[in-house]
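Progress note, project year one: complex with adenosine monophosphate.
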Amino acid sequence: MDKHQKIRSFVAPVVFLVVWGGLLWYRSQTRMEFYNSGYQETMGTFVQITVAAQGQRQAQRFFAAAFAEIDKVNRTMNDWDPNSEISQLTQTAHLSPVTVSPELFEIIAASVEYSKLSDGAFDITVGPETQLWRQMQQTHQQPSPEVLMAARAKVGYEKLTLDPEKRTVRFAVEGMKLDVGAIAKGYAVDRATEALKQQGAVSGMVDLSGNVRCFGKGITPNGLWLIGLQNPRKTDTVLLKLHLNDMSVATSGDYERYVEVDGKKHSHILNPKTSESVGELPSVTIIAPTAMQADALSTTVSVLGKEKGLALIESIPCAAAIVTTAAEPEKPIQTSGATQFIFSNN
Ligand code: AMP
Ligand code: MG
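Model obtained:
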């Protein structure tokens, strides 16, 4: 073996090892896997995030950014907390216009749009009435007609004055109360999704108590996100499965939160004009581009009922609805736009 042959026989394996090792290192750095946060408690319920990441450390960074956003929304919008921004607003907005944070203004302004769209079926000024519903949870007694009427006098989105330039909110009547329970979870899911994307996540799913938004390639082998819709009358079974990509889905229902008084169930969704709980649709699922849209619209359709609700969703581009009726709770009815998202029946 001459000198050159000796060098070649030594160098070739070294080069091979370096290249091979480099490739392995590169693969370990670039290989995407899905990570799941597990259930975390927030906003009076649970959130779960799934995200594709290049390792546990990156996934934890993604989770931390998303949870920080949800916590921020919770701190601002939690009307159970007397120190939250929304509670502070409620205490003083009848005296003079109150300047609020961009986040709170965004949610109130969007809510007013949904009120206009639904002729007041969706209304975050429903607070005085939901307050009575919450009391009913404790007392198991219905409020008197007089008490209900007094609450209704403080309800109505037209009693809100918003100034987008100054970012102020003013109440026309003392005792008004905002309840953003029908829209804030969706909003939080959107904020969390934005945070994930800003951190560099390319695919993931945020699920906050049935308010779901997914983006990028899904977790199933064919790259879809599959979401099962619960059967409202047999909650351990699914009615059908949806496949989504870069979409959101939200379900409002009468089967998880209700109060029973004298054998009658009173759902937590109220018709603001009558103070009565709605009961026509055991479940309403909306598919829409953002989680806030899906959340607000699912509550809206619950109040409007089948005819008006489905007609409203048909009129909104990019939105689809799947509802079940009290008469046939296990037979889903859908708008024309929903078919494309149905993966299978149960
Ligand atoms: P969701 O589960 O998204 O349908 O929201 C239901 C929650 O929204 C209730 O628990 C109340 O806090 C609030 N809410 C009830 N009725 C209405 C309504 N008509 N418009 C807006 N929010 C409502
Ligand atoms: Mg909602």
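The radius of gyration is 25 Å.
Residues 182-183, 250, 252, 295-296, 298-299 surround magnesium ion (ligand 2) (CB under 6 Å).
No further modelling is planned for this target in the current period.
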